[in-house]
Design a protein that fits this description.
It is built from three helices and no strands. By secondary structure, the protein is mainly α. The chain has one domain: Methane Monooxygenase Hydroxylase, Chain G, domain 1. The longest helix has 29 residues. The mean pLDDT is 83.
Amino acid sequence: MNPYLPVLGIIVFSIAFGMIVSAASMILGPKKTYSKVKYSVYECGLPLVTSARERMSVKFYLTAILFILFDIETVFLFLWAKAFDGLGWFGFVEAVLFIAVLIVGYVYVIRRGALEWE
């Protein structure tokens, strides 16, 4: 028996199932009618004030990048905590250096005013 036959069966089944469900939705579902209210942008219950093509502030993107950066570093600290017993003093010193680099970066970001939202 070919070892790829079950994989091919799953792929065929997935495609067929997706097509059947989509067709049933189109046939049994409500007919599409255009409504300006239905297709308008809705966010936080506030009406649309400006165009969607308006440029965002660079501060917004910088804050998002900093959040992702510190979030990834937190993941590394969790992994270090999981392997703490096996690393010994070498792992402890490396973690202290890693946290020191984080603190230096955080102080730099604060001094540059990247976290101040105006």
